[in-house]
What we know:
By secondary structure, the protein is an alpha/beta fold. The protein has eight helices and 14 strands. A hairpin with an 8-residue loop joins strand 10 (181-185) and strand 11 (194-200).
Amino acid sequence: MNKFVKVHVMHCGDVKVDRRLAYKDSNLDHIPFVEQRSEEHQLWLPVSCYLIEHPNGTVVIDAGWSEDVRTRPEEHLGHAYKFCHPRLPSGQSVKEHLESKKIAVKNIDHVVISHLDIDHISGIHLLGDAKSFLVSEPEWNSAKSFQKARCEGITFETFSLEPIPFGPYHLGKDLFLDGLVYLVFTPGHTEGLISVVARVKDGWLLLTSDAGYSEKSWNQLILPGNSTNDQQALESLKWISSFSKRDDCVAVIANHDPSVKYGIY
Ligand SMILES: [Zn+2]
């Protein structure tokens, strides 16, 4: 019986946003459209997906961009295109990454969606043959109809929050019931945002999704530009900050951090 899992951090294209979308700024109460402000306010950020190899199953966290964004980005994103412009080089869709690792989508046991923002579910149909799709109950229950429409044809299993040893509220899900992969309730950016804590060879790896956008988010407690609940977003950042200081924490990885190291943990 393995005592750890392997986590592949995959670079699934990029997104251009106004800086204010990633980092809340009390001087600006709204998020400007992409390129509405000058170039110095624009950020190109990576979009990440993760593959987790557990002895009892294979998991993909988030779906990144659909390959449709290569040819018709505006049509694919709809209203969201005002706030984020996608870029998906050849070989970087989640499916292309899995193909390069010789992993068939039909052999993926769980696709876990951290939250329902477009840059995390756009490519979900690329994973349509996976065995199951998981999203947290509070995330699904608060989903807008256009978010559900983007997932048409995908049957989500929603999971309720149970007591776990991690997170600001000690709530989430022990995915394989063996303490190796926890889905951790870290709300604030969205109502049901899930981070992932995985036991890798050298300790614990924390994948924060969009609870923070980069290391400075939790070091300086800078809220994500978009949040459904600022107080919860702050509690989530405080928990990430304290987790990052644990001796057994291997790395804390935000989904959109330009300094993220791609590779295998
Ligand atoms: Zn995101």
